[in-house]
Design goal:
Elements lengths: L24 H14 L4 H20 L11 H12 L1 H11 L9 E6 L3 H11 L16 E3 L7
Antiparallel strand pairs: 1-2
Helix pairs in contact: 1-2, 2-3
Length: about 150
């Protein structure tokens, strides 16, 4: 059963918080370069995808234990994977922003059709992070991640 979610009707939200204030510059540059190496992205697109990946993970960490069923869009998930595959830096992120708890990655094979991606975009914006809305609308009603627990 699909859950209706009202579309975001405004331009991309400009939050008061930027992930660039959280991610060290050298790490940011490395991960942008990894995205450019692995995907057909220029530096601008790579930075957009990476930034939204961080906003998603930091929001999920801030709401640990709330069972919100957060899910990234397909594009944002690319940024998330780039972050979590850099395991030393990711472990440090979990230590600094998730009370030392590791935010596990538990993907599902089937996409769910429950509006969780747009609900997630709303949650990230409500937490004050900058939202790049076009990166969230590519999979506006589905997300492949494990719902209702403390994992991605």
């Amino acid at each position: 059963m699909a859950t209706a979610v009202a579309p975001l009707t405004t331009a991309p939200v400009t939050g008061t918080r930027s992930v660039r204030d959280v991610v060290p510059g050298e790490l940011w540059d490395k991960q942008v370069a990894l995205l450019m190496r692995d995907y057909p992205y220029d530096s601008v697109m790579a930075a957009r995808v990476l930034g939204q990946g961080y906003a998603y993970l930091l929001t999920a960490m801030a709401h640990r234990g709330e069972h919100l069923g957060l899910a990234p869009s397909s594009l944002v998930d690319i940024g998330v994977h780039t972050i979590i595959l850099d395991t030393v830096a990711y472990a440090d992120l979990c230590t600094r922003h998730n009370g030392g708890h590791f935010l596990h990655h538990v993907p599902k094979v089937a996409f769910k059709n429950d509006g969780s991606v747009m609900k997630t975009a709303y949650r990230i914006a409500a937490d004050g992070w900058e939202i790049d809305l076009p990166l969230w609308t590519d999979a506006a009603d589905c997300g492949p991640c494990h719902p209702g627990n403390d994992s991605h």
